Amino acid sequence: MLTMEHDDPINAKILAISEDKIEGFVREPFEAIARRSGVDVDVVMTRIAAMLCAGTIRRVRQTLLATNLADGALVAWKVPEDEIDTAFDWMFQRDPFSGHVVLRSTDTVTAGSDYKLWTTIKVPHGFSLRRHCELLADKVGAERFRLMPARGIFTLGVGHVRRKTIEPGSKADQPAKMIPVQVVDLSEHEWKVLLALKREFVPEEIRAMPWAARAEEAAVSLDEFYRVAEQLSARKIIGRFSTFLEHVKPSTGGIRVTRFNALFHWAVPPGREIEAGGEIGRHHILTHCYWREAGPEFKSVNIMAVAHGTDKQLLLDHKAAIDRHIRSIGMPVSYTNVFWGGRSEIKPSEISPQVYREWWAER
Fold first, then answer.
1. Residue 236: its pLDDT value, please?
2. Which of 33, 176, 212, 346 has the smallest number of Cβ neighbours within 10 A?
3. Counting runs of H as helices and runs of E as strands, what totals does the chain give?
4. What is the tally of structural domains in the chain?
5. CA-to-CA distance for 239 and 69, rounded, in angstroms?
6. Is 239 exposed, middle or buried (0-12, 13-18, 19+ CB in 10 A)?
7. In a domain, 133, yes or no
8. DSSP alpha helices (H): ranges in 296-352?
9. Do residues 340 and 99 lie in contact, with contact meaning Cβ atoms separated by under 8 Å?
10. Within a domain: residue 160?
């Protein structure tokens, strides 16, 4: 009988690659996972499909660098305490353009600790993020919100299985390079291929030549599908082919991938954000690291990073190691903090302009 847990030795070998190591567009992604993991391709496909059916893997999909396809931001919301759960539900269930929806708290009352609801939001180019958030604020009764679009990306990738054994202070040999956020325009033909490409896989689609049915869905030949997808990948619009573990809730067997979700904040001197982000983002424990301007509500924080783990003190040890490193290079930090994730739901943000027009018309 197959085990569906992420910590099974064979599953762990597969997930160590499939979570975030298959970069760009790949014609045969499951063969690529098999080659790099050393697990037979039929076993790879059987195990991924089984874990997806069991809920251990919550989704399998081709990711996009959606910051280039849509205007996005991390948004902190100040919502009355008695309305926060209702606001959470509305954001998750009724706004397809909200992705991560998380309740966050701090260990002590500090700058911004009254902003407890945090979401990521994307709207297609040509539409207004602020207007979208004003609509959401009206719907959920938010008193205030703070928009924090990414100015640059230093780290972006999950890999929870790989990160379980990382020691505090472990880092790359070189600083992380910043990926700038830039606007990319697509033709109608490219959008048609992209929308078919990015749809989540159902278990029955986890097989050899997985893109053949998507080409048919997009009403193009398989060769044309490959051509467009590889061109989009060369333009840095395609992210990774990824399996996403259910890392918030326990598995059916009661096993958790992670228990704590830490959002680290640092305020560094203006003009040194790229240097600081590179030095922070090189640390292996981090799944995300961004340059974002949080404003006076958060004491002018401008570098944010995320780490996950099952041990809260170990995550604090990781942050202490990062703090020591940036002190050692002479980087001033005027303020730092940790916002801990609580209740959380995650879904991909919709980015289609047509879907957005239809959604807005119904409001």
1. 83
2. 212
3. 12, 13
4. 1
5. 12
6. buried
7. yes
8. 312-328
9. no
10. yes
